[in-house]
Each structure stands twice: as C-alpha cells, then as structure tokens.
Amino acid sequence: MNLILLGAPGAGKGTQAELLVEKLSIPSVSTGNMLREAIAKGTDLGKQAKQYMDGGLLVPDELILGIVAERVAQSDCANGFILDGVPRTLAQAEALDAKGVKIDHVVSIELSDDVIAGRMTGRRVCGKCGASYHIEANPPKTEGICDLCAGELVIRKDDAPETVNKRLEVYHASTEVLKDYYAKQGKLRLVEGNQSIEGANGDILKAIGAKA
Ligand code: ADP
Ligand code: ADP
Ligand code: ZN
Q1: Beta carbons within 10 angstroms of residue 79's beta carbon
Q2: Which protein residue has the closest C-alpha to ligand 1 atom 1?
C-alpha cells in the first residue's frame, strides 16, 4: 500500500506516519526529516536546502524529486511506503506520476490555521531520529528525551511564529491544490485533524480500508 499524507504544517503528518509505520509495517519517507538530516551532516543537499527551510520556503522540486525517487526504489519500500510531506507542489505530484510511482490513497489531514499555532509552539522533535512530540498533547516519557532512540529533543528553527505564518502561506499557495489533483484521480480521503492523535489514526485507517 502506497500512501501520501497531505496537510498543512503541524496538521499531524509526522505523528500519524509514525503510528502507521507500526500498524502497516511499511516505512515512512519524510522529506523534511531527510533534509534536516542532510543539514545536520553538512552534505551538499543540506547546504542547498538550509536557506529555503529556515525561511519557511519550499526547497526546489529537482532536489526533492532526486531524493524521493532514490528512497522509494530501495528494497524496504517494495511492499509499500508512506510519503510524509511530499509531494508539496503540482510539479512534484506530476513528476511522481510520470516516474510511475503508484499511489493508492492520499489522506489529507484537515486542520484550520488558527489551531496550528498551538501545535507549533509546543512541538519538539528528536534531533536524531526525527520523531515528533508535543509538550502537552504528546509528551515524551522523560522530558527532553526521545522515547524511541533516547536522542535529544529540540525546537525546530522554522517553528518560530513568523516562519510558521510563511509556511502556512506557502501551503495554501502551492500545496493545497494537490487535494484537487488527487480528488480527480479518485484517491483523496479527508480526515479530521482536530481530534485526539488516536482518533485521527483510527479515521485514517478506516479511510484507507485498513483494520484499526
Ligand atoms: P511541516 O510538515 O511541519 O511543514 P516538514 O518537515 O515536512 O514540515 O518540512 C519542513 C521544510 O522542509 C519545509 O518548510 C520545506 O522547506 C522543506 N520541505 C520538506 N518537504 C518538502 C517538499 N516535498 N518540497 C519542498 N520542500 C520541502
Ligand atoms: P506535521 O508533520 O504535519 O508538521 P506533526 O506530526 O509534527 O505535524 O505535529 C505537529 C505538532 O502537533 C507536534 O507537536 C505533535 O506532537 C502535535 N500533534 C500531532 N497530532 C496532534 C493531535 N491530534 N492533537 C494534538 N497535538 C497533535
Ligand atoms: Zn529519536
């Protein structure tokens, strides 16, 4: 089963992807995590991506398509994968179709902009594995430490309020059109994001025809 998770920044894509990895036994491909890892390692990709990410802008399509095509071709993706945060532009979606990357369901996690600010101010992410936490809604067992890998939890630079507003603008201008694109292909499933993490997860599993 090949899935795409769509949704505004902070809608819960990363959180839901982590749960789906467990329940569906397929890997998650998060372009945001891959890019943050590249920045941390100081690779060429990281150097090219950093300025865009820090400004809340999208990284150019060519850079993204290269890393995604390479990742989904790996053997652990053979039985399915979850794309978290990609595609984000019409050009990316068309390129995936053109490359023959088959998509079964596109789940859009729906959340209004006014709820998103609170999600972002409380977000903490693992600097090592990328797992996402929230200081109130989804705290780690030990403050500041990742449950999964014991890595240190950090605040993302682009979760500063000014940058969050820019990212929301970019979402509405460049990414939201993908809902129409996939609706026309009969693949779009809408899920309410303004509910508990478990509740949203159950709705996603139902929407893709998997057992909860
Ligand atoms: P969120 O879902 O909270 O916005 P992500 O981790 O998915 O966060 O993305 C963080 C940043 O990484 C984006 O603002 C953008 O700069 C870059 N990025 C991630 N995925 C893509 C993509 N598919 N296309 C372009 N830029 C991307
Ligand atoms: P995205 O990947 O879409 O940017 P995340 O999964 O990182 O979003 O979630 C953004 C923040 O909101 C994180 O701090 C996360 O723990 C929290 N969060 C995710 N889902 C929910 C939910 N259903 N209710 C409350 N907080 C949530
Ligand atoms: Zn971790």
Answers
A1: 12
A2: 9
Which among 92, 111, 114 is positioned nearest to 103, based on CA atoms?
92
| Catalytic residue IDs | 13, 88, 123, 156, 167
Which residue has a Cα nearest atom 10 of ligand 2? Answer: 10
Return the ligand 1 atom nearest residue 88 CA. Answer: 23
CA angle 150–123–72, rounded 5-degree value: 70
Predicted local confidence at residue 211, as pLDDT: 75
User: Residue 124 C-alpha to ligand 2 middle, in angstroms?
Assistant: 10
Q: What is the pLDDT of residues 69-112, one digit of tens each?
A: 999 999 999 999 999 999 999 999 999 999 999 999 999 999 99
**62: Cβ contacts below 8 Å, ≥ 6 apart:** none
Pick from 16, 30, 36, 58 the residue to mutate for probing ligand 1's pocket: most ligand atoms within 8 Å of its CB: 58
DSSP state, 135? T
Q: Does pTM surpass 0.70?
A: yes
Partner residues linked to 107 by β-bridges? 5, 189
Torsion over CA: 27, 113, 132, 195 (sign): negative
Measured CA distances, 104 to 15, 81, 82, 83, 174 (Å): 20, 10, 10, 11, 22
CB 10 within 8 A of CB 195: no
Residue 212: predicted pLDDT: 66
pLDDT single digits (tens) 7-56: 999 999 999 999 999 999 999 999 999 999 999 999 999 999 999 999 99
